[in-house]
Amino acid sequence: MYLENLEPDRPAVSSPLHAKRSLSGDFVFLSQDASVAFAAEACIDVLRSANRLLGHDTYGWTHLRADHDACAQGPVCGPDQTLVLIGGTENPWRPARDRLNALRACIRNAARVCVVGSAVFVPLSAGVLGAKRLAVHPNFRPGVEETGRGLEMSDAATCHHKALSSAISPAAAMRMMVELVGARDGEFTRAALSRYLGLSEPEAETGIGEHWRYKRMAQGDEVIGDALQIMLDHLEDTLTVGQIADILAVSPRKLERGFRDLLKQTPLKVYRDLRLDRAHCLLAQTSMPVNEVSVACGFSNVTLMKKWFHRKYGETPDQVRRHAFAGSAAA
Hints:
two-stranded parallel sheet, 8 strands, 6-stranded mixed β-sheet, single chain, alpha/beta
C-alpha cells in the first residue's frame, strides 16, 4: 500500500495546478449513475462513523451524479477537496466527449482524486491520471493496459500512489476510505474504525466511545491506558482516585498529573464520562429501568445521574429512551 503523499497538514493553496497535493477531509463523491450511488453512500457512512468516533465533524461530503449534469456549471470540486469517482464492476465508465472537459477540470482542480471500479477510465480518458500505480478490477485490466501504457497495476484491492487513491470495486471502496481516514488521523483511528464498521475481526476490547477517545488522547501512555481500563472495568463499583493509583502502584498526584497533561481532564471527570457513556448505551439499547441504569453505572442516585447526563448530552435519560423506542411505540 502506498501512502507517500497523504499529508494531513496541507499548505495553503495558491493554485490547484502547482500546489502540492495531499489529503483533504472534505469529499466530493461523483457517481457514474444511479446503479452505483449506493457505493458512494457506503463511503459516506465511513466518514460519518469516523466523525462519531472522533467526537466532532472532522469530515464533510457532497454526493452528486455524473449523469445529472453535475459538472455543467463548472468544476464541482475545489482545490481543498478530495474527489471520489464512483464506478461499478461491469461496464467501463468512458465519459462522452461533451462531459469529458468538465470531468477533466474537476480532476485537475481536486486536492486528491480517488477512483473506484470502472471510474479508472475517467482520468485515463481525460489524460490526467497523475500516477503510475493503481488498483484495477480484473474485468478492466485489459482495457486499462491498452489505454494507459506503462501503468503498474497493484495486486491489492486498494492502492494509494502520489495524489491518486484507487479501489477495485464498490466493496473495496470502504476499505480505501478507512485507509484515507487512517492516513489523516493515525493508525489507532484506522484500526478502531475498521473494527467498528465490521471490516476487520472485532477484538475483546474494542475501545469505542468515550473510552476510545480518551485512550487515543493518552498516546500510548501505559499508566493512563491502564487507568482507563480499570475505570471501564469498575463502572458499577466506582473506585476512588487513590484506589486506582494503588492498583497501578503510582501516587495519586502522578495519576492526576498524567490525566491533566494528556487528557486535559481530571480522573474524576474522565471516570464520570465513561459512566455516562455506558448509561447512554443502556438507555438506547435496552429496556432497563432508568433507576437500574443509574445503579449499573455507579451513580449513588438517579437524580445525580440525570443531572450529569443532561449536562453532557443536552437531553434527559427519558428523552433518549423515548427516541430509541419510538419505532416500537408507534407500531
